[in-house]
Amino acid sequence: MRYLLLIVFFAFNALAAEVNSSINIENLRALETPHGASTGVIYMDIINNGTADRLLGAQADSVAATTELHTSHFEGDLVHMREVNALDIPSREITPLKAAGAHLMLIDLKQPLQAGQNFTLFLHFERAGIMQLSVPIQKHQITTH
Ligand SMILES: [Cu+2]
User: Fold this and answer.
1) Is residue 14 situated within a structural domain?
2) Cβ-count burial 21-49 (b if 16+ within 10 Å, e if not)
3) What is the reported pTM?
4) Average pLDDT for the chain
5) pLDDT-based confidence at 14, cuts 50/70/90?
6) 75 C-alpha vs ligand 1 centroid, how far in Å?
7) How far apart are the CA of 14 and the centre of ligand 1, in A?
8) For residue 50, how far is its CA from the centre of ligand 1 (angstroms)?
9) Residues 134, 37, 87, 83: what is their CA dihedral angle, to the nearest 10 degrees?
10) Which percentage of the chain shows pLDDT scores above 70?
11) Element (H, E) at 6
12) How far is the CA of 87 from the centre of ligand 1 (A)?
């Protein structure tokens, strides 16, 4: 009986997570990479209209061996990146993943990322669960230094 209750509980929880998910992803894109590059980046805006959540992981198996969550910080003019276990996604806020900020890092690319193509990305949120997205690859924007 207890076993059955547990199953019902987990089934309900999974369903609730699906229904209550109020995370929307906008401006999702990856940047094209030069031939021979081993890493790539994914940027997006994470819009959370629900309760506070956390991004626990990401996966893009078709293009990269692993996908890491990174944060950036400045030391003088240099931007340093570091892997983190989770990113806080506050309630009622837009959390941007962007250059020189938090971002997703594709590690050990299986082939160069070519502008105009798409690949599948899975995001794992603590509350919202798993989201499957299609990431368009964009040309590098010219930035002035
Ligand atoms: Cu990075």
Assistant:
1) no
2) bebeeeebebbbbeeeeeebbbbbebbbe
3) 0.82
4) 88
5) low
6) 15
7) 31
8) 27
9) 150
10) 82
11) helix 2-20
12) 13
The tokens of 138 are what?
Answer: 């964009």
Token representation of residue 66: 């692993």
Asked if residue 16 is part of any domain, the answer here is: no
Q: For strands 118-125 and 129-138, give the pairing.
A: antiparallel
Q: How far is the CA of 15 from the centre of ligand 1 (A)?
A: 33
Cα–Cα distance for residue pair 132/60, rounded to 1 Å = 10
- Calculate mean pLDDT across residues 57-80: 95
Check residue 20 and give its pLDDT: 54
22 CB-near residues (< 8 Å, 6+ apart):
48, 49, 50, 128
Q: In terms of residue numbers, what domain contains 76?
A: 22-138
In a domain, 28, yes or no: yes
11 assigned to some structural domain:
no
Distance, CA 17 to ligand 1 centroid (Å)?
29
